[in-house]
Structures are given as structure tokens and as C-alpha cells.
Design brief:
There is one protein chain. The protein has 79 residues and is α+β, with helices and mostly antiparallel strands. The protein has helices at residues 5-21, 68-74, and strands at residues 22-28, 33-38, 44-49, 58-63. A four-stranded antiparallel sheet has the order 1-2-3-4. It starts with a helix and ends in a 5-residue tail after the last helix. It binds zinc ion. Zinc ion binds at residues 38, 40-41, 43. Zinc ion (ZN) binds at residues 38, 40-41, 43.
Length: 79
């Protein structure tokens, strides 16, 4: 999970891999967030969008949950 805005840059490239290797299973447009599941291993990934003022880069990080819909409902934007 990225802890700083600099780490978000690395997580942006992770999202490109997630988009290729995973399928989106839940989305919350109000938070610009969604949850993806890896087609190979089943790991869940969160997609979040950083509110940077102008462009809003999206990025991904792995999450531990067995309730992706509930996770997304409780999730807050990191940045
Ligand atoms: Zn995987």
C-alpha cells in the first residue's frame, strides 16, 4: 500500500499490470475506486485515484479481504 505520493508513482505501473492480468469485480464511481481480482492467483487489488488537483492519476495496491464488496464500501481514498 503506498504511503506517500512518491510511492503512488510506482503503484501507477502496478495498475497497468493489474488491468492486464485481473478482472474488475466491484466499482464505486463516487470514490473513483474499484476492486480487481487476479485471474491467475485470485489476489484482490484495490484501484484508487489520487486527487492531485489537475490530473488524477489512478494506481493499484494489493489488499487482503474475503469480502471485496464490503471492503470497497468501507474504503477511503488514500490521498
Ligand atoms: Zn496473481
Amino acid at each position: 500500500v503506498p504511503a506517500t505520493r512518491d510511492e503512488v508513482v510506482g503503484a501507477m505501473s502496478a495498475l497497468r499490470v493489474v488491468e492486464r492480468e485481473a478482472e474488475q469485480i466491484a466499482a464505486d464511481a463516487s470514490k473513483w475506486m474499484c476492486v480487481w481480482r487476479c485471474r491467475t492467483c485470485g489476489r484482490y487489488w484495490a484501484e484508487d485515484t489520487m486527487d492531485s488537483g489537475q490530473a488524477s492519476p489512478a494506481y493499484a495496491y494489493p489488499i487482503e479481504t474475503d469480502d471485496p464488496e464490503g471492503w470497497l464500501a468501507r474504503a477511503k481514498n488514500l490521498f
